[in-house]
Amino acid sequence: MKLSVIMPVYNEERTIQEIVKRVLEVPLEKELVIVDDCSTDRTSELLKVYANKAEIKVLRHEKNQGKGAAIRTGIQAATGDMIVIQDADLEYDPAEYPILVKPIIEGRADVVYGSRFLGLHRVFFFYHYLGNKFLTFLTNLLYNTMLTDMETCYKVFRAEVLKGITIKSHRFNFEPEITAKVFKKKLRVYEMPISYYGRDYSEGKKIGLRDVLPAIWAILKYRVVD
Q: Alpha-carbon distance 86 to 116, whole Å?
C-alpha cells in the first residue's frame, strides 16, 4: 500500500531539508506532498530543488491560509492508499511510519493516532500539557471515546476515508474538526505510542490561546452539526 505524506510548511527554512531527507529515508512505498503556505523566509527557495523529484510534489499557496487549508490542498493532490500528516519542524520522527500504518495495512483500523503521551517525549510545558489534556478530555466526553492525545500531528488515514470527509478549518482547529468527524462516522480508530521531540516556544510555532478557544468551539460545534 502506498503512503501519501502531507507536509504543510510555513517558514521552516532551518528544518525543511532535514525533514524531507528523513521522510524519503523511510522504507515504504510513498509520495511526499509539500504544501508551502506562502512562506516569507527562504523555505520556498529551498523547496525548488525538489521540483523534479519523482517522489515529491511541491505546491504553494500564494496567500497564507493556515495549516488546515494546507492540509486540504495536500489531500486533493494525494494519490496514496493511506495518508499521514507530517509537520516540518522535526518534532515528530518519520521513522515511526511503519508502526503507525501497520493497523491499517492489516485491515484492523481506518485511522491511527500517534500518541505523544504513550511514547518517549520531551517533558512538556505544564500549561501546554494542561491545554492539550483539556481538549482531549472534552473530546472524549462528547464523543464517548478514550483518546490520550487528540492534538497530535501524527494521524494516519485510509485515503478513501479522509477524502470522504469535508474539512472546513483553516488553522490549528483542523485537529478537533477531523477528530469529531472521524468519531461521528464511527470509524475504527487505534492509538500507537510515538516519540516527540518538542521545541521551545522560542524555537518554533506553538498552539496558543488564540488557537485553544477555536478548538473548543470546533469540538462543541461538530458534535451537533455537519
A: 14
pLDDT in tens, 55-76: 999 999 999 999 999 999 999 9
The set of cell numbers assigned to 212 is: 485553544
pLDDT digits 0-9 by tens, 103-118: 999 999 999 999 998 8
Q: How many CB atoms lie within 10 A of CB 62?
A: 7
State the pairing for strand pair 111-115/155-158: antiparallel
Closest CA relative to residue 172, chosen from 143, 120, 119, 135: 135
Q: pTM for the full model?
A: 0.90
Q: What are phi and psi of 8, to 5 degrees?
A: -75, 135
Give the whole-angstrom CA distance, residue 108 versus residue 189: 9
